Amino acid sequence: MIDLLNAKKEFKKYIGNYNLANSEIERKVGHSYRVAEISGEIARSLNLTDEEIELATLIGLLHDIGRFEQQTRYGTYNDMCSIDHGKLGVEILKKDAYIRNYIKDDKYDNIIKTSIYNHNKYEIEEGLDEKTLIFCKIIRDSDKLDIMYEAIEIFWEENLKVTDDITKKILKDFKDGKQILNQDKETQLDGVVSIISFIFDIYYKESFKMIKENEYINKIMNKFEIEDDDVKEQFEEVRSIANNYVEDRIKNMK
Questions:
Q1: Strand partners, 225
Q2: Under the phi-then-psi rule, with left for phi > 0, alpha for psi from -120 to 50, and beta for the rest, what region is 26?
Q3: 4-143 has which fold?
């Protein structure tokens, strides 16, 4: 079995090397713990073994281990302006076999490193075995779910008045059921639609149920007051598409 208590102690020791008074560092600490919990819940819903549930939880805890060094070195979490934090996380775990501080057995090393490497990519790399793919999907779902939570609790205040629009490419991509690329975002509402578009890269029924039960889509979108009637209509179309998609996935997924 995986000693999660020891892993959490080691993680606490690791993050102690960074400036926890920095609100951005502090935010990623909370994110890491929440993603670990969500990963365990999704794994449990898939009827995985106890050890596999623990493995999913461990991957959730470690998935953003590269973020702390990224923020410290570059002062940003923008991978395009700094470094790929998934890749950096793998490098940290590899250096001096640091991963052994979290798990004594090396039989899961490839799954852990591959899942962390893939968690922040636009798509999961091809050619992975079925078991590794499961854990890659779990961490990607968990990460997105907590980012949606953060969008409600941290990113945006209530009753934000918006005068910009949704750019044509963003709206088209969303209507085509595509997850939005970061580099395509131009306006604040593009950023909102980008987070809502996470639903098109969610893999498990349990994840969709969490989105619905927590009302993530409506709670995010309700934060914004849009003045232009045409933009408001587009925004509400996004809401309708998103909620209907989530309902459909819950209804039709096994």
A1: 161
A2: alpha
A3: Hypothetical protein af1432 (1.10.3210)
